[in-house]
Amino acid sequence: MLSREADSMFWIGRYIERVEATARIVDVQYHSELEGAFPTAHDNSVTGALWGPILAISGDADRFAKEFGSDQSERNVLHFFTCDLANPNAIAACISRARENGRGVREMLSSEMYECLNIFYLDVTKWTVDKILASSPHSYFNGVKNACHLFRGITDRTMPTDEARRFLECGMYLERAEKTARILDVKYHILLERGNDDGFPLDQHQWTAVLKSVGAFEAFRKAHRFGITPAKVVSYLVLNPDFPSSICYAIRRAERALRSIGGSTNGVPVNRAERLISRLMSDLTFLTTEDILEEGLHPFLETVQSRCNEIGNAISEAYLRY
Amino acid sequence: MNVPLVTEQGVDLSPMSLFDKYTLDGFYDEMFEQPNVPRSCYKSLHATLAALGPDDFEQRAQMAENYMVNQGITFTVYGAEEGLEKTMPVDLVPRIITYDEWEGIEKGLIQRIRALNLFLEDIYHDQNILKDGIVPRDLVVNGKHFRREFLGAKVPKDLYVHICGTDLVRDDKGDYYILEDNLRSPSGVSYVLQNRLLMTRIFPQLFRENRVLAVDHYCSQLLSNLRYLSPRQIDDPVVVLLTPGEFNSAYFEHAFIAQQMGIDLVQGSDLYTENNIVWMKTTRGPQRVDVIYRRIDDDFLDPLTFRPDSSLGVPGLLNVYRSGNVALANAVGTGIADDKVIYAYVPAIIKYYLDEDALLPNVPTFLSAEPAQRDHILKNLDKLVVKSANEAGGYGMLMGPQSTKAQQDEFAEKIKADPRNFIAQPLVQISRAPAFVPSARGFEGRHIDLRPYILVGEEISIIPGGLTRVALQKGSYVVNSSQGGGSKDTWVLARNSNTNGQTNGSIDVEDLRMQSNKQVKQRPIEGDKSQQE
Asked: pTM of the prediction?
């Protein structure tokens, strides 16, 4: 396939995943505020503590500050993550770029996939932050999540598992692994800093929020009936081979897609991208939670993120650049 | 059985019929031979539509609009609001052509394209037609789209035009005239295919009541024609569609056709040339390209040969082309034959190469390059339609009868300054067909034309019908989408459709296929299956 088109497929996958992650994170944060231990006054010192972590997860704190200064009001933050086209990571901006990429590879996508992407775009661009606030933020975020599910479902049902689809999957799963790593990193950091001063219930609430923001709460509960501990959450979201938003699972899927593109039949990697991703996969397979906590969760998660980045670059070198 | 909609006494017009306020206004009307009397081929359609109310019709129109928007069948409007995407309006009243009428059109178009291909081959090689003085040499060699760089260049199979869209109109007597040929990269065929898809979804019952010839084999025919051009004699030549990119107004069409043919949709930056070969940048390394269906004008194809400032094309492409290592469809330099001045000579061109009279007439045309004709044009600017030789899309035109004195003066100056570049024609009172007008909550007559798509490969084939464009603005004669035009599904009825539209017994699928796939060399002969009931 054309390199340009492979690149576009990769990015469509990334953007869809990014949009879903953003919708989940902001949704959970917004609602955990409503029943959380934080006072919900519109007092900036408090809301700063509330929204700061999300801005950190998306890596957009600086951009936000440039646009809004220190005014982390609910309205500003919601706008920033949903409809703000000046923020390239906002939901509307990502969908718009996913669709732009989709237009460039229209003949590769099934008509149903393109229609889904297009309707998604047309819907999302109809919203404003005031509309979101006036109706229900949850239904907005739910709509966004469902559109992502629909796109993946249509892809699964109408697109052959060929090279183009593999590039889409690579983008999707690499993005997912990175996002889980970031959420965990930021939240863990904050929770550790705060120590146990705020008492157990708040922590419980916060860890629940972490699990919910990657859609893992219910599954986690089934696996660990004896309560939520930081180590268990880490173990579940980093090393669990079966849950779709764990880093291990996502990297395994990305590895499988990448290996399928490379086509090597004897297991020997054919390029640097494959070597890097298989090495990461091997770490995720053989490390234990204790190993990770001993090394320090933060440095570990940071390495995971930078390794994901490097894998992205290596893919581009191997297939996309001329 | 369908519920009969036609009564013994004629059509039962409910008080809210969409045809209530319909008038003919002295024009040739496609549907009606007299007020309230539909032509026989339209009887069934008319009856079905007359039974609908405005709300029902409007709702279906909305369904059509939603489909187009959701599928992204839109073009971007420049200059207006940023990123404004508009659909090309589809009018849901189909246009009908009878089988016999279509046969005549088809014969005329095949004759015309054969002659034009011979003409192009001639003017880029021996130039006999110029030597014999049939077409003035200076009109050809000084034409804007004449490519002297390609004199003597051999093109695959000696074919220049592989895809042609020829515009026809009907005058006030219902006779067909050729209005212009589009021999560069005619667009609109995706609308033919989409309009049909839409109509079968929105008005399925109409297709049970009328036997309409299929059009959906266009893309497979095109692909096999393109493969036929491959310079390499291999089983599976690499064919690509070259688009200027997603910001081009016809981008949807490019993507759609590429998708339907299952070929790569490439942009200039996806290709490069090396060792006199065109390569495509793929994830598996460079891949050789054999045939390029290009939807980029000559000027932008290769910055080394034509416009150096163009980044849409592929540097070095034309050298590869000249060496015969890649085929382009259409060939370079075809634009000279759809120059509006050369148009006037097409009947003579047909006579010269085929020794036949043109089956489909031209609209009478005055050339301002000829002093006597120029005087006539200048004296009659208020009655004539003046066109500049190389503009498309309804631009660069003066509609005399509807123009102001100031506009006429402006054109007079232009004509005097550059007589080579203008022609004039009497205003043809082109035919009208009913179109839905939301503000009137009913049908009104609107002017239409017809653009059939002609494919030239080993044989010449034309999908039945083509694109009917409709000038949706009241009184307007300009059907171009850039000027507020829309389109209609165009039906060519199977030969043995009977006149009230109810089909007799079962439809013979093979029979229909024979008729719609008909090509020159496969023309059914007398007693052939397609003529049997």
From this structure: 0.87
